[in-house]
Amino acid sequence: MNEKTSDESFETLDPKDWEKSRALMHQMVDDAFDYVSKVRDRKIWQDMPPETLESFTTSVPRQPNNAKAVYEDFVQHVLPYNMGNLHPRFWAWYMGNGTISGIMGDFWASVMNPNLGGGNHAAHKVEEQVINWMKEIIGFPETASGLLVSGGSMANFTGLAIARNAKCGYDIRKEGLRPEDSGKMRVYASSEIHSCNQKALELLGLGADSLQKIPVNADYTINLEALVTQIKKDWEIGLRPFCVIGTPGTVNTGAIDDLNRLADICEAEDLWFHLDGAIGAIAMLSPEVKSQLAGIERAHSVALDLHKWLHMPFESGCVLVKDQKMHKDTFSLIPEYLAKNTRGIASGDNWFSEYGLQLSRRFRALKVWMSLKEHGTERFGRMITRNVEQAHYLGTLIDSHENLELIAPIGLDIVCFRYNPGGLTLEALNVLNKEIKLQLEERAIALPGYTTLENSYCIRVAIANHRSTDEDFDELVKSVLELGKELH
Ligand SMILES: *Cc1c(COP(=O)(O)O)cnc(C)c1O
């Protein structure tokens, strides 16, 4: 590698000096290990100063620069202002922390740089194996198919596209939506459904109105009677129900719909049963949670998000489909320039580009493959179980302070609460809690999330974090109480 090219005037994008480049890369690896191993010692989040913001407004570089100077720019302006989700006290939205094996996998994915659209090469086998492992985890049969995608949004989009095509009863790929079906096809989900599903239905030409949001019970699970009533009513008035989306782990409160009952309803009404398992599906790895997910294996399609509770570096999602043929029928399109051979690099029966929208695809599977091989499903399961226990630990802390209150039942690993000193209007409470949440961020104490449940603003703690300790929750509660007192 350190031999000079025979003709030094021949320009490529390779380093001019391989040894210098190697030394820089070694330094990056050392810095990266310090960065991850010392995450607790750094500020969880900080705003970017004006000179950093300014640095992002320069125009496109025209001349080469040395790689070390570029790295120094990164170290000065990018690295210190990260999102914070590696930190043990990050509980916002719903994200994972990453793993070292995930980093190594992503690194090697870029080094090998294969295209997972298709072809006969090992990366294809790695992705196949990861999908098979996901089927094993969820309890899907070997005959099921799947695809790694960017995340939950694409996984749900893929599942819903197959549902639409499988259930519309004609060749919708050729004809498009028939006028008599336009505005009539209906999908059912609870009012707690994640917004990406609506986006998917809009892009599938079904319109936002195709999503019938069904009211939830007091525990935020879908109300099954209301669901059945709505489906029957819609059939009666000439609409075309075709799919129910269940959510095992809702984004607001972690509520798990009754999957077996939903499967029964779908069977009785001949509907596609899709699951948005972005949060909860991977909790099948926790022996303590698994029973709450009974019925998951009865779905026609399941969306999983591996960059959430499996802690893979972004982006990493997965869709599983019970009927491989329907999956392929939705996406396969092979023009002559993609025609396959029976031997050589262009051989192989199933190319991943026949199972999704993307043709060129990165080697996403490697980080998952390496991480699962290194840690095993049981360790990942223990991380999930501990987060669920921590949610309940936080719940007991909240219950034990009279100025704190839970706003919703704790579902899986999500706790919604607020500071309430008594005697305040709802509006004042909302303003106060929003300010507490902002000050937790600005003082770099912790990054919980937030949501609004029945007009009450709440601090939402979503604990998909393999680094959080019980003391981190003690600290959160202590800080909320102090801030509440200070601000009220
Ligand atoms: C996060 C989430 C999504 C969207 O997944 P992305 O990976 O962000 O695209 C969908 N559904 C639920 C329940 C989620 O929590």
TrEMBL record:
Its cofactor is pyridoxal 5'-phosphate. InterPro entries: Aromatic_deC, PyrdxlP-dep_de-COase, PyrdxlP-dep_Trfase, PyrdxlP-dep_Trfase_major, PyrdxlP-dep_Trfase_small. This is Amino acid decarboxylase. Keywords: Decarboxylase, Lyase, Pyridoxal phosphate. GO terms for biological process: amino acid metabolic process; carboxylic acid metabolic process. Belongs to the group II decarboxylase family. One of its GO terms (molecular function) is carboxy-lyase activity. It comes from the Bacteria. The modification N6-(pyridoxal phosphate)lysine is found at K308.
